[in-house]
Inverse folding.
């Protein structure tokens, strides 16, 4: 069916309306493909099939800060993290996160940020990863760069998180804790990217982009 015949049958006004609907649907689909600033997500380590998790349990060694682990359960509310801009650099709420962008991951239940530093992790002897700060505010050691293959962090793609201050990758190699967090996997930082440092978003609430003015993304 040619363009002139379509216009004849449907009328120019109807044709414009249909085209507009298609464009809006395409735009909405495009927007929803990406992980955005302000979204609250669970992150699955695809090598070990566990979700990034934290809880108000301190390490018994190293920094003594709040521990970060990997858990198999998909239903645990302590596995939700909010995506935020780095300190003193707000990201636009709903804006897609770019590959290479520096972000913070704030634990929803305790308000502490995913953090790393030159302490030794308790099980594997790699670099400790903890949750640090109060009410979403910590320091520059809370910053991680999102490594992905395209322009933006896509919801279904595997990504890596590289610690901006020490260059380690957020990783899991399978070591398990005993009491009081029996069966949970150690999360740590490792030099060099591998299958142990591959993550993807699973459950969560994804914030849509908006045309609102830039505003801070505090909790």
């Amino acid at each position: 069916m040619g363009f002139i015949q379509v216009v004849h049958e449907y009328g120019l006004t109807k044709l414009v309306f249909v085209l507009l609907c298609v464009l809006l649907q395409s735009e909405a689909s495009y927007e929803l493909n990406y992980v955005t600033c302000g979204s609250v997500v669970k992150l699955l380590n695809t090598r070990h099939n566990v979700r990034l998790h934290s809880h108000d349990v301190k390490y018994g060694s190293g920094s003594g800060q709040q521990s970060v682990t990997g858990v198999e359960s998909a239903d645990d509310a302590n596995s939700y993290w909010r995506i935020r801009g780095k300190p003193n650099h707000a990201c636009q709420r709903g804006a897609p996160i770019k590959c290479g962008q520096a972000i913070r991951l704030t634990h929803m239940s305790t308000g502490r940020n995913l953090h790393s530093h030159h302490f030794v992790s308790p099980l594997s002897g790699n670099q400790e990863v903890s949750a640090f700060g109060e009410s979403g505010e910590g320091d520059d050691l809370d910053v991680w760069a999102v490594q992905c293959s395209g322009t933006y962090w896509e919801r279904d793609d595997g990504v890596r998180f590289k610690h901006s201050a020490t260059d380690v990758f957020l990783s899991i190699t399978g070591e398990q804790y005993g009491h009081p967090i029996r069966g949970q996997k150690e999360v740590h930082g490792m030099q060099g990217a591998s299958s142990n440092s591959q993550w993807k978003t699973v459950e969560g609430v994804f914030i849509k982009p908006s045309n609102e003015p830039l505003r801070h993304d505090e909790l």
About this structure: The longest strand covers residues 50-58. Residues 1-10, 12-30, 212-219 have pLDDT under 50 and may be disordered. The longest helix spans residues 12-32.
